[in-house]
Amino acid sequence: MTMISRIHLKLAVLLVLAGLLTNAQNKIQVPLRFDFYYTLEEMNQALEALHKAYPKLTRLESAGKSEEGRDIMILTIHNPDKGAELTKPGVYVDGNIHGNEIQAGEVCLYYANLLLTKYGENERITQLLDKNVHYIVPVVNVDGRAAFMSEANTPSTNRTIRIPKDDDRDGLFDEDGYEDLDGDGNICQMRIRDPFGMYRSDPEDPRLMVRVKPGEQGEWTLLGYEGIDNDGDGRVNEDAEGYVDPNRNWGYRWYPRYVERGAGYYPFSGVGLKALAEWMLAKPNIIMVFAFHNMGGMWLRGPATQDESLDPRDVALYDYLGENAEKMTPGYRYMPSWQLYPTFGDFGEFTYNLLGAYSFIGELFMSSQETYRKDITKPLEDPNATGRERLKFNDHLGLGEMYKPWTAYNHPQYGEIEIGGWVKISSRLPQPFMLPELVHRNAAVVMFAAEQTPEISMEIFEVKEIGRNLNRVRVRLSNNKAMPSMTANAAGMKLYPRDMLTVSGLKVVAGGKITNLHFDRVTYKEHKPELQFLTVPGFGKEEYEFLIEGKGTLQIEYTSRKAGTLKKSVKL
Amino acid sequence: MNQIFIQAILFIGLFMPVSGARAQSSTGDWKYRNFQEVQSNLKTLQSANPAVVALHKIAVSPGGKEVTVIEIGRDQSDGPAIFVGANFDGITPLATEGALHLARYLMDNPEFRTNVRWYILPYGNPDAAVNFFAKPRLQSRLNAMEVNLDTDDQANEDGYEDLNGDGFITMMRKKAPDGEYRISDEDPRLLVKADPAKSEKGIYKLYTEGIDNDGDGLYNEDEPGGVNPGINFPHEFRHFVKEAGLYPGQAPETYGVMKFIYDHPEIAMTITFGESNLLMDLPQEGKSDFDPTRIRIPERLARQTGLSPAQTYTMEQLIQALSARFPDAEVTENMVLGQLSTGPERSFRKNDLVFYESLSKSYKEALKNAGLPVSLMAPEKPANGSFELWSYFHLGVPSVALSLWEPEIQKDTTTAAAPSSAPVRPGSASQEKKPSAEKQLLDYFNRKGIDGFAGWQSFMHPQLGEVEIGGFIPFSANTPPAGEAEKWLKGQIPFVASLAHSIPDIGITGEEVTALGAGVYRVELFIENKSTLPYPTDMGLRNQQPAPVILSLDGNGITLIEGQARTPVTAIGGNQTSKVSFVVHAAKPGDLKAKLESPAIRNQTRSIRIGN
């Protein structure tokens, strides 16, 4: 072999190796791809990659560890040159608090990717990184996502956090879970041939079953999800992993599990949730919260129970955001969450009531989007047609990967049965080819809300000498955005100090709110007139008057937990 | 100053904590021990008895104090346990002493720790507890968490000051044309609210002792400290009350207690030493709007079941409807209640009042035998968010609460009061003829020679001008003088220890084997609860929290024909026996092992001969 060919060979080997490497890295390379579902490990690698590509604009940290010791990662995004983190209105976005609701993680990751890759290119996004700070937690239930992706599951299992619970109260914990009997990576359904059963094969598509009508002979009995009776109590899969619902373990109106299923023993018994809550409480600037779930296509706000009511001022802002969100995500409905079902101890109620942040739950994806029809604007009439259409969608667009054909299996307890039905990545999860649109539309809604976070400006609009050594100074605070500087609920419940307008440098003889500018009506504050408490409404203003004795420089400062800080001075 | 604030002052300053006592200086050897002394006492107890005693650090308070549970009976490998929590509000030093006394008593009397282990928490709120020993003495329930109580621009900026230097934080009264208070007809030292309807005119304004440090017109509205762990538990937690915390379990003391207790499912009873007394002031049966014969169902449930939201149904009908809809599920009354979103239970369950009454009888008996008065001033009602209510409603265990001491009243006025009436407060006190609570207190001080009230003295206040400072001395109404305290502990702690004998004692006490022929046998096992308390409580049945008691069968060559290999034993009342039946097949004679197990009982096995 000549030298040259040896070099060629080496080169070729190197090229092949490099090719392998880039293939592996290609999957996770900024800008990120959104045509597949990330494993938890890949999700964390993607966050690392974003952080590495934009070190100045990002901070990557762990809120704390989960039950199984995994880190809950938070990516913080803003341009620190345009103001300190805590002086910017915070937008918090999380997902995948239920382990099986994985596309929620992709929405968060996409939002991060969008902000970073378009910063400096797109005017709206540049604004968002300059004015706001974005806290992004793609996967809250890290153990759940890891287990959902790596183990056999139904589309609905592994929602829980990993605290063993004795669901069937037999003294044993999590002793009878599902089994992937046929080893295909999915927990599907089991059925047994039974002339007395409630189901028969659908004559139009024998893969489906329909309920028997009176006068018809049955064919099948459904046996539930794949598994065996592990503990010999005559029941199958009745005490699976968990169940503490990570979205019922938060500290606002938490009730025990005889009232709210999945509540856990006490609020924040989930260690990861506790760490995340404590992390959030240390970010008082958070004013807008999104938490993504699947499914159903909904924008949910509080209250979570019918017996609570929201301040109409908060509802007005929610309506504005929600109605716009509906238009950006066709088919989604905006509504109070109790209308879906009442809940206690959930995340959104915690952030709205105890963090003082406007909070939306985004329920991603509708299976009605899986169509096989010429005119999708016309609804299907026959209830059985939905399943048939979805199967056709599976055959033609899902490449047949969404549904497992019924296959014979010899069950140790039931004998000859069949296993089949919808697989893990189906039903609640869009097929990967639909992901790019889903993540973009929902991230656009977050962007829209982020743009509405308060933007306050301060103006000293009048300085008038009204007596010897006495000046009248008038200050206006106005909000150029739709969102007030504080929720009406937080102000009403005295959750935290309201925005403050502080005047210093000279003696303040009197000071107070101007209630009618045209008629010089002012409500003076009896004590400490140099310190006024207020909220600046959305697209609104607040005006204050101070009577100042003496000459010199007067400092005027506005400080808000969620809407930043402003300083002005005037020489008298 | 607004109405609410005045009421807050009264509430905080006068009638709840009203108290104190110069007379609490020690007489004889007995004295109240401070935090360091209590901790070193626990350590000594542990190091002297390492086989029996263990210490558990369950939290660190925001003030940096360790929250310690002392375990007594670690030589017992399994079986039920009692948790004793003391001084959650931080204002009951006697409660802490009671916990220590109990620990010592259990060491000296091993018969109370042979069937039951004990976990004792002497300090549920160590941060606030230091105030009793501090100068000036202040009755505050707040731990050292930083909370901006008045939601202004600063935290902890306006606390109390002992202006007249008498060593106590009391009250200030100032003559004012718009005053709301007048001198009481009962005693010139007391003030009452003037009632305009009776043509009464107020002449005084009332403040707590101190200055307005931040110049906002309010006095002492943001004292250092933040949360009272004693009202930070999740049952009936009060959101948006600063002292209760932002959410249940926010206080590390509270979270630590909840975690510890759920990590120990063997805890079958809790005892609270504090301000309430559930054996003196029995819980009342609540009224409920829920009528199980006329249930209306929400629309969502109607859709699922095919029933009508406009009609009413009985519980039985709903169980049947849901069973038909979910054939695989075992539909219970509890499940239906969950579906109806009836919310959490708010009153003690009727069936549980039976054991409260019987415990109360024994308690009063014990007081009488110890020569202690049974006629006492009304203790506080258990507070929303308190440990004692949480224990009963969330853990589902018998929750005993004792105040260990209340000022004795000369004439029994409490029994005549309607049982549902609120604890004695300024307004309700002026019911006809009966002396007010404050008057009774003054009379009590008088009889006992206790200096419990600081007479009004004039003082030149830097902001208010001429005022008078005086009022009830902190702790005088809820804490006996040291000279009296030991007697009360000696008289009550043996009763507390004896509660070990009322813990459900469940065992297999008999069996009957009937041959049905062809190697088939009916086996009947009798499970008896030999003590007076039920297992679980009725509330425990409702909340499904207490650990189940499981009966399991195992035998070589013996197969179960009817029954479960692991059978949860249903609730067993005090002194009752329940029967569990099985049908087995044994080809040849053999032994069947019946095992009864639960964290809350002592596990046991019984061998049963099948055949011949």
In short:
The complex is a heterodimer of chains A (572) and B (612). Among the domains of chain A are: 1-29; 31-148 and 245-365 and 446-451, Zn peptidases (Aminopeptidase); 456-571, Immunoglobulins (Immunoglobulin-like, Sandwich), CATH 2.60.40.10.
Provide the domain count of chain B: 4
The CATH top-level class label of the domain at 31-148 and 245-365 and 446-451 in chain A? Alpha Beta
Question: Count the strands of chain A?
Answer: 23
What name does the CATH topology of the domain at 31-148 and 245-365 and 446-451 in chain A carry? Answer: Aminopeptidase
Share of residues in strands of chain B: 15-25%
Annotated CATH architecture of the largest domain in chain B: 3-Layer(aba) Sandwich
CATH superfamily of the largest domain in chain B: Zn peptidases
> Quick one: which chains have the greatest interface?
A-B, 46 and 44 residues
Structural class of chain A: alpha+beta
Strand order within the widest beta sheet of chain B: 1-2-4-3-9-12
Q: Can you tell me the residue ranges of chain A where pLDDT is under 50 for at least 5 consecutive residues?
A: none
Report the CATH C-level class of the largest domain in chain B.
Answer: Alpha Beta
- Write down the overall geometry of chain A: elongated
Distance between the termini of chain A: 92 Å
